[in-house]
Structure formats: structure tokens, C-alpha cells
Design brief:
mainly alpha; 2 helices; elongated
Amino acid sequence: MEFRKTSKRKTYSDTEKAVLLEAYKTSVIAKNNGAKKMLLA
């Protein structure tokens, strides 16, 4: 996963990192389990 740095902000806050990490984990789990669970959610 690539974190792109913007000219305005060079770093992500701890909260943003946590949110992005959770979103990344969720997407990976969803892919591993297949699209069915995403459709049923």
C-alpha cells in the first residue's frame, strides 16, 4: 500500500494511519474471502 505525500501535509497523523491501516486490512480480508461477504454486508 502506498501512502502518497502531499505538498500541504508531509505526514499522516496517528489516527489517519490507523484508519488507513484498518481500511487496508478490511480490503485484503474481503479479497481473501471473496466478494460475497462484501455484497452481503
